[in-house]
Amino acid sequence: MWEIIKTATPQIIAAGIRYTIPLTLLSFAGGIFLGVITALIKLVVPSGNPVKKGLIRILQGIAYFYVWLFRSTPLLVQLFIIFFGLPNLGIKLPAFTAAVITFSLNTGAYSSETIRAALLSVPSDQWDAAYSLGMTETSVLWRIIFPQAVRIALPPLSNEFIGLVKDTSLASSITIVEMFTVAQQIEAKNYEPLVMYMLVAALYAVLCSVLSLLQGWLERRTSRYAQEGDEAVD
């Protein structure tokens, strides 16, 4: 058993470095970008001329439908639709690209609600105070509201990131040779399913534990400034 573990571990780790980690990072970055855009669209209050109001309502309708769709369907089904289904429409994507798109869209749908809630949790009187200083709406958003929202959204977004690391194992179903796929390939040769699956589970656990420690450090780092601000007020 130990010889199998000694031989298989470097191969699984190599697959993690080559596919699992890049897939996670690219998908999370894309998901956060989509989440921010979607959250901002849903928070916009329609105003101005009828054409502008109509356009905003259309965009909000698309945003709400997007979030509903990806939160209401299984991630595995979404992977199959994009990788196996889209070729029927003439859209054939490489497996890695299809996985990044799917994971990004799924992460974006979930993170948009987290980001929207974080933005809404910032007291509205801060907008008024910033406007009284002559700041533009964009400046208020990026210099005052977003920094506070990031601190609030950090714990749930970190949890989503850790969850995404584990979800990348589903990419094995569309031929991506990530950590779980390598474990399956080795198991097919040595006929030791319990050893191989426990090994890959342990490696996922180590990776997620490291990320959890990083999450705790980031939370303490960002909370420090809030605590210093509270002490200054006192």
Automatic annotation (TrEMBL):
One Pfam family cited in the UniProt record for this chain: BPD_transp_1
One GO location term (cellular component): ATP-binding cassette (ABC) transporter complex
Domain of life: Bacteria
Membrane topology: Multi-pass membrane protein
Domain ABC transmembrane type-1 as annotated: residue spans: 17-215
Bilayer-spanning residue ranges: 21-45, 194-214
Keywords tagged on the record: Amino-acid transport, Cell membrane, Membrane, Transmembrane, Transmembrane helix, Transport
Database matches in CDD domains: TM_PBP2
Record NCBIfam families: HEQRo_perm_3TM (TIGR01726)
Protein name: Amino acid ABC transporter permease
Native organism: Lactobacillus selangorensis
Taxonomy of the source species: Bacteria, Bacillati, Bacillota, Bacilli, Lactobacillales
